[in-house]
Amino acid sequence: MSPTEYVEGLNQLVVVAASDLNTSLDVYEAITDPAIEDWATFVERELAIRRVFVEDFGELDPPGSIVDVHQIFGDALDRGLAATEALAAVTDTVEDPNEAQQTPEFAEYLAANADGSTRVCQEAQAKLDALATSSELLANEPWLPDLGLSIRAAFGCLG
Length: 159
Fold this sequence. Notes:
About 80% of the residues lie in helices and about 0% in strands. It has about 160 residues and is mostly helical.
């Protein structure tokens, strides 16, 4: 897979997943007084979206120059999926969404998402910056900044 094909594939995954996640959140937030069944449905939708994203991401074949960036991204996606799976299991043990949000599983879910928008963003961008400065040939490749944009979009990186 060429770097351009990799970035295009990643972009496609990010666009679909972001749209699906935002739609799911909008549906849940439109519920005035959500019950545990509403919460469970919301978490299950997110879990399904994350599973597809992780599976499709695993099918991407990164070029050798960005295997490290791909691994950082993959590790964060795996952690997010595991945290969401654990959160889904909690819905059978609590009475309402507020109680679910007081569990260690919800704390890990929040931590996994926060880790994506801090550590992953910083590490991936540092690797991309190093890659761009290590080779004049790569510095002018249009896919390199596009990969940075894809990572920022996927993980909500600030800046």
